[in-house]
Each structure stands twice: as structure tokens, then as C-alpha cells.
Amino acid sequence: SSNIRLAVIPGDGIGTEVVAEGLKVLNAAGVKSETTEYDLGAKRYHATGQTLPDEVLDELRGYDAILLGAVGDPSVPPGVLERDLLLRLRFELDHYVNLRPVKLFPGVTTPLGEARPEDIDMIVVREGTEGPYAGAGGAMRRGTPHEIATQESLNTAYGVERVVRYAFEKALARPRRKLTLVHKTNVLTYAGDLWARTVDRLSMEFAEVETDYCHVDAASMFFITQPQRFDVIVTDNLFGDILTDIGAAVAGGIGLAASGNVNPARTAPSMFEPVHGSAPDIAGQGKADPTATILSVAMLLDHLGHAQASARVEQAVADDLIERQSAWTARSTREIGDDIAARVAG
Amino acid sequence: SSNIRLAVIPGDGIGTEVVAEGLKVLNAAGVKSETTEYDLGAKRYHATGQTLPDEVLDELRGYDAILLGAVGDPSVPPGVLERDLLLRLRFELDHYVNLRPVKLFPGVTTPLGEARPEDIDMIVVREGTEGPYAGAGGAMRRGTPHEIATQESLNTAYGVERVVRYAFEKALARPRRKLTLVHKTNVLTYAGDLWARTVDRLSMEFAEVETDYCHVDAASMFFITQPQRFDVIVTDNLFGDILTDIGAAVAGGIGLAASGNVNPARTAPSMFEPVHGSAPDIAGQGKADPTATILSVAMLLDHLGHAQASARVEQAVADDLIERQSAWTARSTREIGDDIAARVAG
Ligand SMILES: CC(C)[C@H](C(=O)O)[C@@H](O)C(=O)O
Ligand SMILES: CC(C)[C@H](C(=O)O)[C@@H](O)C(=O)O
């Protein structure tokens, strides 16, 4: 059958709440799917000490895609679930493209007083499998006045070329056809040089795409003062992490920011997740906005070839966001999911 | 005499224009100074191939302070002046504190529609001599499909402790007494661990200071959505570079952002400079805003013990900024300098 075989990792905190709404909208979109839920996250960690057992990882490889809510809980030592579960999934499943649209929908309030939707419409293509996230580094004489701690960014021609190529292709498919490399070439000279040379070289193959370069500090500023400068951005794992949170802030908040951890070579399933975390402070109260997860479902549908269903979900979200402007009362997580699902189905 | 012995490096582009106004205001403040100008920058590089000769560096060590405009010119290979001149000065003169206030003055337009001056009033204490700026790293098989490029962040207990201690002292001297460490401890585990442990340890000595931690991605967002969270921030060299550009954006633009490269141990002169660059596109046209340089002069005066004169300069800038709101025409670089100098003198 052409059923989508979907692994679902609701995770911790609001993760379970938003994922339920994402699945509701997926069903409403009329694309058949079979979902299997995985209890990875804080609960499993406490029950068994496991974060991501090898057998589970192997099983996950067999799905068409993964939908993830959020991981992280105050009861688990900081960083453990982030690294041993979330980042491990990204690395093991070779999610070398972390795709994060930054788009201001009409009707959405932005902290930028003067920004209009046409000013904020970009896609950040964040590298997902190397750079400062490689986990390389060490410490010597830890805890003494002579301690030294290092942290290494590892960048390969192989890893940089494939994500830059993907970004060029994305840019080529968009009306503006503009690609901006964001890095810090004047300080991080070795890594920056590899990134800059790679963009230069591929720009010959993609002559229709205009290329540009921006230091990460300036780019961070321009996200706020001149977001209309950007169309597609390609950048490393750490700069992409920072830029996409700035992007979420200017495009109406982390409740709307979707992402896809994509393996374009399709050697393993891609994983879609909201950019936000597990937000333990509001968990279980029905206060979380499921919109980021629903938009992540739209990305998932698009990735699996269901472009029409994807567009329908995105349009339903856009319509819902317009209506929110004039709403008198805040809706619960479930109510937002219901409303968007109804629009998709209707 | 108690004359300030000041080395002046106007540098490139708008650097020369803004420095002239900074010196004008310094004179108006009534603190006697003797200034010696150094022609470091693009011109010297083209004439002699030199960026920062050792003899000049040695001479610079003899001054009470350095005022720098901006370096960098399109005619010089990218990064050369930034690294071999600007960063070399910071490293050689052991400017381990890069002090960058982020403050919204009344009357100043911010891109954040709803922010008021009391919401944005913080100081970023950026480490200035190590971390990812150490220049460590390398490349192998450069230019081939098998290239690997590394970039290393070097962090020492010595280097981290001294800047964290400085930040605690700053926080203690401010009404809110709050210090936030910004890092990425969940990913950069070795470096993050050293930074977090150092803050924890020193927090015992500074029991009156409330401490907090924020990942760099979340902090970048909060600069936009909740800047009132922050009082004093301490962070590494690269995160500080990014955060202070976001700070400049939200606090009214790079034309107002001042900085001090401070050697608190006073083993070498500190260096004060606007955060902005040489802006070759508007150089020589009298369009640059000298306010960032003038505020840097206020920091210089404060550093050298002239607290009253420093406060007078800052007040003159504050008054000028209020008046700008209702101005009909844009003033030139020189006119702004004249107006602020007149307020300081009067
Ligand atoms: C939780 C954390 C490890 C993660 C990251 O840094 O990539 C998150 O911030 C994100 O952006 O998805
Ligand atoms: C010019 C560059 C090397 C410098 C830096 O990265 O520190 C600049 O961005 C700054 O913030 O002063």
C-alpha cells in the first residue's frame, strides 16, 4: 500500500500534547498512515536507564519518516537526552540537512514593529551532522586551576558540499534564487575557508542562483533589521542553531517554528520536529501551541511526495493564524489542533 | 602631569571620521590628554605590507589607553586586518574583557515595537582572548574531496575564571545584581562544563549576585522577546560577538554600540572602539554616526578613573538622542560631534 509508515516519538513535556495534534491533522489530510509510537525520553530513561537502544535505532531505520515532539526533562541530567537521543538520531540517521523555514504568516504578531510578511520569508539550511556538534574535544586537569577544555569543529568537504548543494537546489526552486552563506570566515579561517570555497565552486554549477556572504554576527543583526535580505541561507550546525532561534523570535515565536531533519539521500528516514523544546513549565496544561508541530507535519508530507496535502495543511495553518488575530479567548492545544484539522478536512 | 596619554588608531573607512568626533568630545570633557596617531590599517598595509609591526605594538604598550575607529577595507584580503591588527591587539594587550553595554536610550527607535528603555539595559562581558578566537585548527587535503578542516575552541581555567570574576564584580555593582552565563553546555560539553563550573564556584564568593544560565540559542531569542531578563551576561568570545550584534540591533542600531577591550589587570592599555566596522560604502561622506565612538570615549574616561567626565559625556549623548527624535534633518558626522561636544562643554 502507499500508507505512510510513521514512527512517532512524542518525548517529554509538551511533546506528547503537540504530537497528538500533529497526528490529528495528518489524518485529516487524507494521506493514509500507520503510526507506531516509541516511548523514548525521560520516562524510559528513568525506567531502564536507556536513551536510544541500538535495537530501537535499527527499528526506526525501517520507517518512512519520524515525527518527534520534544525531549528533555528537569529530572534527567542536562544534556543527556539532547545528546544521546535527539542529536544521536540526527547523526545516526544522517540528517545532514536541518531545514528550518523562517516565515512571517499574515496576521501573526512579530516583535519587530514594522516587519510585514513579505519581509520575512526565508529558509535556513542548517548542516546537521558535523561542525561544532561533532562532540570532539576534551579536558585536561579538570577541576584544577590548570584546566584546559577544548571543543573542536570538524568540517569535511564531503559534509559541506552535500549540504551546500542541497541549499543551491532549494534556492534555484524559489522565485528569488538567492543563497547566502553565513559563517565567520574572518576568525574561523580553516572551517570558513572550506565553506566559502565550496559555495564558490558550486556557484558555477548554479549560475542562476545569486550568492552572497554574511558574517554570523552581521547576519544575526540583519535578521532583525533587514530580514528581507535573505532568501535561502546555508550555514553550519551551531550558527544554524542560533540563527533559527532568532528567526523564530522575529517570525512570531517558537510556537510557530517548524523543522525537518532531512536525509536527502534517503538512506534513512527523515525526522520532523518543532524547533521548541519540552517546556516542562507548561506541560500537561493544554497551553502549548501545536502549530509548530503541525507545520512540521506539512514538511513531512512534502518530503514524502504528498505536495498537495502538505500545501493544504500549510494553508489551513495560514487561515487559522489570520483568524487568531481577532479571537477573544485563547484556545487550548487540542482546540487549535481541532480547528486546523477541520480546515484541512473541510 | 595627569594628562591622559592616548594612542589613536583611526583605521579605515568611517573610522577616521568617527574618531575625530570622539576626540572632539574628549577635549570638551575637560580631561587633559596628549594624543598620538597611528596610521595602522589599509593604507599602511598597502604602503609597507605591515599590519602591526612589533615596534609599534611595543610603543602602544606605553599609553594609558587606545582609541580605535575601525579597520578593514575591500582592497585588503578579507580577514587580514581583522586578524593581524585588531584581534592581535586584543590578544597581545591581553584584553580579556570585551565590555559591551546593550542599552536602549530614551528617544531611540528600536525595531522592537514594544520595547521601552527600562526593558533593555544590560552589559555583555565577552571573553576576549581565547575560545574559538584562539586561531587553533587546520586543514588537510585542502581543495580535494577529502578535505577536512578543523577549528578549535581553547578554554582555560585561568582565562575563564578571570573574566567570570570580572562579570560578577560588574553585577555586584549594579542594582539588579544578576549574572547570566550564556553558553551551549548541552552540545559543547567540555568547554561548557568549564564555564558552568567556574560560574558555580565563584557564585559562592558572590552570594549577593543571583546567577542564571541560558543556552546561546535561547538567549539570542530572549534578546528580542524578553530583553528585560538580562542584567550582566558573561559569555565566550564567539557567542559574545553574536549576542552583541543582536544587542546593537535591538538597542537602536550599530551606530550607537560602544565597546571596551579591557585589560582589568592593567598590564597593558585597554582599547576602546565602536562595535561597527569601517563601512567602506559610506566612508568619506560625513554620513557615519559618531555616537558609538563617543560612547566608547565615555567608557575610556570611566576606565581611567574620570567617572564624572564619563557620566557627562554619556548624559550629553542621552540628551542628544532625545533631541534627534524631533529633528527635521539628518546631521553630518561632524555636526553630531559638534552638538554633543557643545553639550559636554556647556
Ligand atoms: C536541544 C539542542 C541539542 C538542539 C540543538 O542545539 O540542535 C535544539 O536547540 C535545536 O535547535 O533543535
Ligand atoms: C572584525 C571582527 C574580527 C570582530 C570580532 O569578531 O570580534 C568584530 O566583529 C567585533 O565584534 O569587534
UniProtKB/TrEMBL annotation, chains A, B:
One Gene Ontology molecular-function label: 3-isopropylmalate dehydrogenase activity
Enzyme Commission (EC) number: 1.1.1.85
Protein name (record): 3-isopropylmalate dehydrogenase
PANTHER family (UniProt xref): D-MALATE DEHYDROGENASE [DECARBOXYLATING]
Chain ranges of the Isopropylmalate dehydrogenase-like domain: 5-340
Domain of life: Bacteria
Keywords in alphabetical order: Manganese, Metal-binding, NAD, Oxidoreductase
Organism: Microbispora bryophytorum subsp. camponoti
Classification lineage: Bacteria, Bacillati, Actinomycetota, Actinomycetes, Streptosporangiales
